[in-house]
Each structure stands twice: as structure tokens, then as C-alpha cells.
């Protein structure tokens, strides 16, 4: 069994990371200006992050959204407070692709429309509708091509208005 070739692989094998540095198996350090798809943009091994994750996992690692979860409710309340968006509903998911997939689905429910407007050279993730709205023919399978997507150049408001 081998890993599916999602990206071309660089000849670096990270074994640990601290703050803004990633270290390979030979002890060579690299300045991490990537942050793993921005997943760890706070820096690696931040003590507050490590403590919060360790404390939570020692109590409860995961449970379904089908139960009341005070941490999720607190997150929703805190986000409402700091964002100033009163009365919104928080939809929690696992990845940017899943967020985009569900945003497309919610927009379709809200508008009753099935067509999507996306920008050329965009990337929205590797789930089905997100792939369809991504301007990269190399990752679009026939099942993804069933989505109705119009691509326009970023900044071309005339094209956007003509499609809308």
C-alpha cells in the first residue's frame, strides 16, 4: 500500500517542530512559512495550545454533534461576541474543503439555485463540490464535472455581473 500522490513530495521528512521551526530527521531546521495549510499558524508546540489540547483529550477526545457540547456552545457564543455577528448559527466541520462543500450546499438551499460562480485559478478543496468549483482540470473527475460552475477572472466585475 502506498499514499495517494496528492502533491509532489519534497525530500524533507519533518520529525518535530517548535515555534516557527520545523526539524528534519537530520536535525536541519527550516523556517516554517507554510503552517500546514494554515492549520498551525499559531506556531508549533505553543504551550497554551499543547496544554489545551492535552487537557481536553484527557477528558473527552470527540463526540457527535448529536449531543449537547458546552465547548461548542461556548465557541459559538465567543465567536458571536468577538465578530459582532448577532444571531448567526455556527456550523462546525473538520476542514476547509468540508467548510466550502457545506457553504455551497447551504447557499444552494438558500437561493434555490444549482449554478456556482467561481474564480479562475481558485482552489476550494478536494471534496466533490469544492473540486468542481476549483479551477484545476487535473483534479476534476467526471463526477465532479456534473456540477454547474462558471469560472470568471478575479476582479472582472463585468463577467460576474453578466453571470449573476
Fold and architecture overview:
The chain has 164 residues and is an alpha+beta fold. Among the domains are: 14-57, no CATH class; 96-163, no CATH class. It has helices at residues 35-38, 47-59, 70-83, 96-111, 128-132, 157-163; strands at residues 14-18, 21-24, 29-31, 115-119, 148-152. It is globular, with a radius of gyration of 20 Å. The model has no long low-confidence stretch (mean pLDDT 91).
Short characterization:
The chain has 164 residues and is α+β, with helices and mostly antiparallel strands. Among the domains are: 14-57, no CATH class; 96-163, no CATH class. It has 6 helices and 5 strands; from the N terminus they run βββααααβαβα.
Count of distinct strands: 5
| Structural class by secondary-structure content | alpha+beta
* Shape assignment: globular
Strand fraction equals: 5-15%
Overall pLDDT, averaged? 91
The biggest beta sheet reads: 3 strands, antiparallel
Amino acid at each position: 500500500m502506498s499514499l495517494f500522490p496528492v502533491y509532489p513530495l519534497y525530500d524533507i521528512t519533518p520529525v518535530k517542530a517548535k515555534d516557527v521551526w520545523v526539524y528534519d530527521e537530520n536535525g536541519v531546521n527550516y523556517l516554517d512559512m507554510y503552517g500546514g495549510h494554515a492549520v498551525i499558524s499559531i506556531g508549533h508546540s505553543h504551550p497554551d495550545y499543547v496544554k489545551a489540547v492535552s487537557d481536553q483529550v484527557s477528558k473527552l477526545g470527540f463526540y457527535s454533534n448529536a449531543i449537547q457540547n458546552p465547548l461548542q456552545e461556548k465557541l459559538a457564543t465567543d465567536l458571536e461576541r468577538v465578530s459582532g455577528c448577532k444571531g448567526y448559527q455556527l456550523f462546525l466541520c473538520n476542514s476547509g474543503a468540508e467548510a466550502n462543500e457545506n457553504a455551497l450546499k447551504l447557499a444552494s438551499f438558500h437561493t434555490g439555485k444549482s449554478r456556482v460562480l467561481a474564480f479562475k485559478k481558485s482552489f476550494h478543496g478536494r471534496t466533490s463540490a469544492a473540486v468542481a468549483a476549483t479551477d484545476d482540470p487535473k483534479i476534476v473527475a467526471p463526477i465532479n464535472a456534473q456540477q454547474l460552475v462558471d469560472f470568471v477572472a478575479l476582479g472582472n466585475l463585468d463577467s460576474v455581473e453578466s453571470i449573476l
